[in-house]
Design goal:
Blueprint (H helix, E strand, L loop, with lengths): L16 H12 L4 H5 L1 E2 L5 E2 L36 E6 L2 H13 L4 E6 L6 H7 L9 E5 L5 H13 L10 E5 L1 H8 L6 H11 L6 E4 L4 H5 L4 H8 L12 H13 L3 E3 L9 E4 L2 E4 L16 E9 L4 E10 L5 E4 L10 H4 L9 H26 L5 H19 L1
Parallel strand pairs: 3-4, 4-5, 5-6, 6-7, 8-10
Antiparallel strand pairs: 1-2, 9-10, 11-12, 12-13
Length: 403
């Protein structure tokens, strides 16, 4: 008797979704079902109050494996995750004792938040004493303005050890946009500092240094689409071709399920490609803007028509006139070097990190010179109240940058 299994639910007839809904509607006493119980997210998805097996009957995703499209069970096929714990370093000896203790308890990755006045090779020697740096992931962070010093110090420390520089791994957190988003303060010369951080760890291939963190947007109440839009923002200013890793990322997004990618931010046009039948526009330039560099005066409009089966994509060009507003123009009316026919020959380059970003820094500086020259040239055309406002704003910004 104990071995028999009675299926109690077999004694009840099946209940259809319609019957459940009718029961719910009766309990609502006349209230509208959709308005009362269906939740519409800020991203435009309807979330029903109940789901049944029939709702997922034709979803192929239920049979997918980790690491397989559409990646609903993660992008990795393995389970090699590291257990990490962060330590706020105010005393390097105490932090070292804590690190050694938690490593014995199963931690495999350490994060050290180091005060700027503690950044030195000697302090790192004390902090990492007794830690197998080739087999423990090491992650470091400090205030943004001291990150270059931290990166140089970490690199210098590893050179004093017998460790194989090809085997050490970890990160040095450089995320200048966090300060802008959380405190509303700009970060002067962040591009120059990013290059300096990258250059400092060039002999440590296992170290990542450029961070993108959208968690503060989530905590501030952003929609998923807003958080995703910030996290996926890409493109280096004034570069007319994308970085190779950006191309790989675009392909990964298409593999993930994106149907169309339209890039912004570089302020100039970049090429486009068709990958697995899906269009990727790496940058469509400016649209309404007051930049004075001639290459920033051109952009594109991507025309998209969609039916149930496919996207139909085409594009046209625009030129920004002196009133800062765009007019649609033909390809024959713009320089060849800003046309897609030319730009499409540029992506796919095998270029080094240092080479690409040094080109980017050079173009940023060139554009700033153009902007400053234009401002000085026209300064006497400004009304006194406008000039006074700009002067006050400049002084305030200088004070912020020095903090």
């Amino acid at each position: 008797m104990a071995e028999s299994k009675e299926k109690l639910f077999d004694q009840f007839p099946p209940v259809s979704t319609q019957e459940w809904k009718e029961k719910v509607v009766a309990d609502l006493k006349g209230a509208d079902f959709d308005k009362k119980l269906v939740w519409r997210t800020n991203e435009g998805f309807n979330v029903n109050p109940m789901y049944r097996a029939e709702d997922i009957a034709n979803l192929s995703t239920t049979d997918s494996l980790p690491g397989e499209y559409p990646y609903v069970r993660g992008t990795r096929a393995d389970n090699n995750w590291l257990v990490r714990q962060d330590i706020k370093v105010t005393d390097v000896k105490e932090a070292n004792v804590k690190a050694l203790d938690i490593l014995k308890k199963g931690v495999e990755s350490l994060g050290f938040e180091i005060a700027k006045d503690l950044i030195s090779v000697e302090n790192l020697k004390t902090l990492l004493h007794g830690i197998d740096v080739e087999n423990v992931e090491l992650n470091f962070s400090t205030c943004m303005k001291s990150t270059v010093k931290l990166a140089e110090t970490v690199a210098a420390y590893f050179k004093t050890t017998p460790a194989d520089l090809q085997k050490v791994s970890g990160s040095i957190r450089f995320n200048p946009f966090k300060r802008m988003l959380t405190k509303g303060r700009d970060f002067a010369d962040y591009a120059d500092q990013a290059v300096a951080v990258i250059d400092a760890v060039k002999e440590l291939p296992g170290f990542r240094v450029l961070a993108v963190d959208a968690v503060m947007l989530n905590n501030a109440g952003s929609f998923i689409s807003q958080e995703l839009g910030f996290a996926l923002a890409w493109g280096n200013e004034y570069m007319n071709y994308p970085y190779p890793d950006q191309e790989k990322f675009a392909h990964w997004l298409i593999d993930l399920g994106f149907d169309l990618i339209i890039g912004l931010h570089p302020h100039v046009l970049q090429g486009y490609e068709v990958y697995k039948g899906k269009y990727i526009y790496y940058s469509i330039g400016n649209f309404v803007f007051n930049m004075k560099n001639s290459i920033t005066c051109y952009g594109a409009i991507v025309n998209v028509e969609r039916d149930e089966k496919e996207f139909r994509v085409s594009h046209s060009y625009i030129k920004i006139e002196n009133d800062y507003f765009p007019i649609e123009v033909s390809a024959e009316e713009i320089p060849y070097k800003v046309q897609f026919d030319y730009l499409n020959t540029l992506y796919g380059r095998d270029v080094l990190h240092e080479t690409y970003y040094m080109q980017d820094i050079s173009r940023i500086r060139h554009n700033r010179l153009i902007s400053r020259f234009y401002f000085i040239k026209n300064i006497f055309k400004l009304r006194f109240d406008v000039l006074l406002f700009l002067l006050k704003d400049f002084i305030v910004r200088r004070k912020i940058f020095r903090k």
